[in-house]
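This protein record is not my work; I was only asked to verify it. Where you disagree with what is written, explain briefly why. This is what I was given:
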Amino acid sequence: MAGRIDSRLAELGIVLPAPPAAVANYVPFVQSGRLLVVSGQIPLVDGKIAQTGKLGGAVSVEQGQAAARLCLINVLAQCRAALGDLDRIARVVRLGGFIAAGPDFTQHAVVMNGASDLAVAVFGEAGRHARSTVGVPSLPGDASVEVEGMFEFV
């Protein structure tokens, strides 16, 4: 029987992928006490980066939001790998967003809403979180967005 969060994902039409493997000298997640910290995830679909390029250049705000949403889907896949059951997540504590953008781009927060809005859609009030969003000159593989997360679990 599907749990509450799995049911909510299904309602939203989301199927979590296999969690992406780490590509360098780090681990995909770390548990410390009741906190789960998930390393930054890029917008991978079937092992390929779904959105490359820079915001404020060839990538629109809407494409950036979709990329941020994909990143959070990959973050949730790591959560499932770590915890086994997404119903164990009591709260989304923090999301961090990295937006590849040109120097004149200023809508970083709007792009990151693609991830934040999904967190609230999936977890309800427990999905409301603290957040940092920064612009960067580049990301691994020319990804447009990267998202990391911190979760409290039971």
Remarks:
- The mean pLDDT is 97.
- Helices lie at 4-11, 61-83, 108-123.
- Strands lie at 29-32, 35-41, 44-45, 48-49, 89-100, 130-136, 145-153.
